[in-house]
Each structure stands twice: as C-alpha cells, then as structure tokens.
UniProtKB/TrEMBL annotation:
Transmembrane segments: none annotated. It catalyses: 2 reduced [2Fe-2S]-[ferredoxin] + NADP(+) + H(+) = 2 oxidized [2Fe-2S]-[ferredoxin] + NADPH. This is ferredoxin--NADP(+) reductase. One of its GO terms (biological process) is heme catabolic process. It comes from Tranquillimonas alkanivorans.
Amino acid sequence: MTEQKPVTQSAATAVKALPDAQTVTQVQHWTDRLFSFRVTRPQTLRFRSGEFVMIGLMGDNGKPLLRAYSIASPSWDDELEFYSIKVQDGPLTSKLQHIQEGDQIILRPKPVGTLVHDALLPGKRIWFFATGTGIAPFASLIRDPETYENYDEVILTHTCRDVAELEYGRRLVESVKNDEMLRELIGDGLDKLRYYPTTTREESPKMGRITELLKDGTVFRDLGIEGMSPETDRAMVCGSLAFNHDLKDILEGFGLREGANSDPKEYVVEKAFVG
Ligand SMILES: Cc1cc2nc3c(=O)[nH]c(=O)nc-3n(C[C@H](O)[C@H](O)[C@H](O)COP(=O)(O)OP(=O)(O)OC[C@H]3O[C@@H](n4cnc5c(N)ncnc54)[C@H](O)[C@@H]3O)c2cc1C
Ligand SMILES: NC(=O)c1ccc[n+]([C@@H]2O[C@H](COP(=O)([O-])OP(=O)(O)OC[C@H]3O[C@@H](n4cnc5c(N)ncnc54)[C@H](OP(=O)(O)O)[C@@H]3O)[C@@H](O)[C@H]2O)c1
C-alpha cells in the first residue's frame, strides 16, 4: 500500500475557496498602463454584449475587493475578456495587473449596463465613441453579429493620448475583419465596420479629440458622411465623465435623445471609470 500523502490544496479546491471564482486563461500587457485578460465563463452566465459585471480579488482584509468592468468579449464567446487600466496606487488594479494564467479572480455573475442594443431605437448607422479603456464594451459589441444585423454602418471611434494606447482596438478591428463568421455580415468590402482612431498627445495620422473633430466637421468629411440625424443615427458613448458630458452635448445638438433600457431612444452613455 502506498503511503498517504498530506492533502494539499489543489487548484479545484482553491477555486471553491473563493466566492464566484473564475480562472485566468490568458493575460496580455499592451502598455505600462493597459492590459487585457481572459477568464473562464460561468456556465450559467448570460449577458448582453456591452454590459458590465463586478470583478476583483480577495482584499487583504479577507473581503472581496470588487470593481465594475465592461465585458470586452461578445456574448457568444466561451470565455470572458476584460481590458484594464493599471492604476499604480489603485486598490484593485495595483494587484490585478500581476495576475497570471491559472490564477483566480472573483466575478459576480450579475451583468448590467446601458450600452446595449435594447436601449436604442432601430436606426441605420451606429457610432461607438470611446476614449481609453472605454473601448471595452465596444470590443464586445463589434464582435456581436447583432450589431451588423441591426445596422447598415458601424463606426468605432477611439481617442487616446498615445499611439500605443490604440493598439488593443486596432488589433481588435483587424481580428473582426479577418473573422470568417463576422466577415459574412460585414460584407466583402469590409466597409460596414469603420474604425476612426485619434491621438491627442502623440503624433499619429489623425490627431485631436473626437469631440473637436466632430464639432469642426472633420470626422464627417473624413468618412464621407453629411452629419448625424435622429432618423438614421444611433450612438453609444463610453469615456471619462468629462468626455461623456461633452459628447452628450454634441449628440443632443444633432437632435439625438438619451435612451435607457426601459426607454430606448437615439443614444446611450456609460462611464468608463469614476473620478
Ligand atoms: C460602469 C463601469 C465600467 C468600467 N469598466 C472598466 C473596464 O472595462 N476596464 C477598466 O480598466 N476599468 C473599468 N472601470 C473602472 C474600474 O471600475 C476601476 O475603477 C479600475 O479598475 C481601477 O480600480 P482601482 O481599485 O485600481 O482604482 P480606483 O480607486 O477604482 O480608481 C482610482 C483612480 O484611477 C482612475 N481610473 C480608474 N479606472 C480608470 C480607467 N479605466 N481608465 C483611466 N483611469 C481610471 C480614476 O482617476 C480613479 O479615480 C469601469 C467603471 C465603471 C463605473
Ligand atoms: N494616459 C496616460 O499616459 C496617463 C499617464 C499617467 C496618468 N494618467 C492619468 O490616468 C487618468 C486617465 O487617463 P486616460 O488617458 O486613460 O484617460 P483620459 O484622461 O480620459 O484621456 C483619454 C483620451 O480622451 C481624451 N479626452 C479627455 N477628456 C476629453 C473630453 N472632455 N473630450 C474629448 N476628449 C477627451 C484625452 O485627450 P487629452 O489628451 O486632450 O486630454 C485622451 O486622448 C487621468 O487622471 C490621467 O491623469 C494617464
């Protein structure tokens, strides 16, 4: 008979030890301030592309330390993807930035949010306006077939300080255009999905805040579009409080009205972070 070994904590029991634990399957660092990661998906989790959940780690005090995170993967994906900031003195991300494949995070399986198709009335063209990590909900939505079924044209704008901060979005758009299933929906010309990246502090092909480029008509000239109208255009906005505020003014100026899950209209807004 073999000698009984002392019981060590296996990965499985460690998963059970954490409430709502999911296992990290992949981590990618994009800059010293940005990273993305994928985790296992709870079998029972259903969500609408664009929604967010609470995720986190166990705090030093033994209590879960949770923050809101947009799910960056589409609702059909087997796993969940997140795109995260690294705040060096941030209670959560000072630790979360060090996660590795095989580690566990806490994920509360209660998705909510306003950046969902249900919160908008039917239209012809949808604009996704993002700054920084605000691209996360749109990373989900531009991989969702429903987006292309609902609209003739999908425009993703992403404004960051530096070129390196655009890379996650650039690769994402490239992957969508190379995806067999989505290609069929986007069409052979691949121009149903239009990508409009801009930087504000580092030289790039298109410089400037998207708000300024909308106000002076540059965006419309560049894309060959006359402007926005409540009859045809729908918009989703995700960035800092100041960005959301400024963009709301612009959209209202075009006659678009803010909608909600319970009251769909022409545009919806969500904060990419608080503060
Ligand atoms: C609805 C919603 C969805 C969110 N989705 C995401 C997401 O998908 N990815 C993500 O990285 N964060 C997201 N956040 C922000 C997230 O909840 C945390 O604030 C972030 O993870 C930092 O946590 P922390 O504990 O390290 O620092 P916190 O104490 O939460 O934040 C410290 C400071 O860091 C800055 N900050 C926080 N988050 C960001 C950010 N994302 N970009 C730039 N500056 C920031 C702010 O100035 C904030 O006051 C979301 C927030 C909300 C309200
Ligand atoms: N990104 C970095 O390298 C960096 C480094 C250290 C600390 N931080 C801190 O981290 C926090 C978040 O930084 P972040 O870069 O992720 O987000 P951010 O400050 O919201 O900026 C992201 C992008 O949105 C633009 N923007 C900001 N407000 C806008 C508005 N009202 N209208 C239109 N565009 C607007 C910015 O342009 P502008 O450049 O014109 O503002 C920038 O291109 C800030 O408190 C910042 O001080 C950032």
